[in-house]
Amino acid sequence: MQWPKKSTITLSLVVIILIAGLGVINFTGVEMPYLSWVEDGLFSLISPVIEYATGFYHSVRSYWDGIMHVGKLIEENEALKKRVFKLEREKQLMYMLSNENQRLRELLAFKKFIPYQTLGARVIGYSPSNWENKIIIDRGAKDGIKSRMPVISYNGSLVGRIDYVGATSSQVILVNNPEFVVGGIVQRSQSRAIGLVRGQLNKTKVSLMENISWNTKSKEGDIKKGDIIVTSGLSNSYPKGLPIGKVIKVEKDNYGLSQKAEIELFMSLKTIEEVLVITDF
Predict the structure, then answer these.
(1) Where are the alpha helices (DSSP H) in the chain?
(2) Which residues, at least 6 apart from 281, have a Cβ–Cβ distance to it below 8 Å?
């Protein structure tokens, strides 16, 4: 075995003695100016090592703390997600209530100017079949609702009529239902063309105005694209003047004795949320 050289052993002993001496000096507080250069040199030599070791320690400590608290972080993250979802839901609810409040205000304002008695109702259900075109409202016999009462929207356009009455709710057959028929008349003062407005199968937005009984060659019997069709009031079922829709197409028979018009309905199933039931007119 080869022993270390004497010079190496001597240098190591000197360094150890110096470090020990500096430790004694720092511990006892004794000042030795002639050793200050040794202290400064050793400090400059050792400080980078100490700095690196300290940084490495803090990195390991942070990483370990993160591992130890990962469960807590996951819980906090889930709690924050739930809070964000709750706030988003409350925001959507406030938006919905604001829109509903605006519609109810418009409904109330319209109600003040109509010459007949009405009862407000909320739509609470739709027909499960697209072929039936019916809705359910939250008013029934206990509220004075009766069969065949007309139903209108917040802007006064015709929605349909009461088809079935329960104790606290009722079913409304809509104007676009093929079984729904109402007398219509051109609103334009130069024309008094009248006919029957009926819903179409598979066409929820367009009804037909058929059997227009007037002289089609005269101005009074004329019907044009863009004309507004309203209820004629020729029966006791509906008050006169309820808007139904706008003419988008007109056809005449080969002899020019009758006309058939396609009516784009003002009623839209997608936007019906509140209605007015006409109880007396």
Answers:
(1) 6-28, 36-68, 70-111
(2) 115, 116, 117, 150, 239
Specify whether 148 is located in the same domain as 249: yes
- The total domain count for the chain is 2
The answer to whether the CB of 231 falls within 8 A of the CB of 185 is: yes
Going by DSSP bridges, is the β-strand pair 274-280/259-265 parallel, antiparallel, or unpaired?
A: unpaired
> In angstroms, rounded to a whole number, what is the distance separating the alpha carbons of residues 207 and 230?
13
CATH number for the domain spanning 244: value is 2.40.10.340
- Report how far residue 127's alpha carbon sits from residue 148's, in angstroms, rounded to the nearest whole number: 18
Q: What is the pLDDT of residues 160-179, one digit of tens each?
A: 999 999 999 999 999 999 99
Structural domain includes residue 59: yes
* Cβ neighbours for 100, distance < 8 A, ≥ 6 positions apart: 273, 274
Identity (one letter) of the amino acid at 61? Answer: R
Extract the tokens encoding 198: 């009926």
Q: What is the pTM of this model?
A: 0.61
C-beta of residue 240 within 8 angstroms of C-beta of residue 252:
no
Q: Would you tell me the crossing angle of helices 70-111 and 36-68 to the nearest 10 degrees?
A: 50
3-state helix, strand, coil in the chain (%, to 5): 35, 30, 35
Q: What are phi and psi of 158, to 5 degrees?
A: -70, 130
**By residue range, what is the domain housing residue 49?**
24-68
Supply 9's token pair. Answer: 């052993």
Burial class (CB in 10 A: 0-12, 13-18, 19+), 42: middle
The answer to whether residue 119 is domain-embedded is: yes
By three-state DSSP, how is residue 40 classified? helix
pLDDT tens-digit profile of 43-91?
565 666 666 667 776 776 776 666 666 667 777 778 888 787 777 777 7
The count of C-alpha atoms lying within 13 angstroms of the C-alpha of 227, restricted to the half-sphere facing its C-beta, is 25
Could you tell me which residues come within 8 angstroms of residue 205 by beta carbon, excluding any fewer than 6 positions away? 176, 264, 265, 268
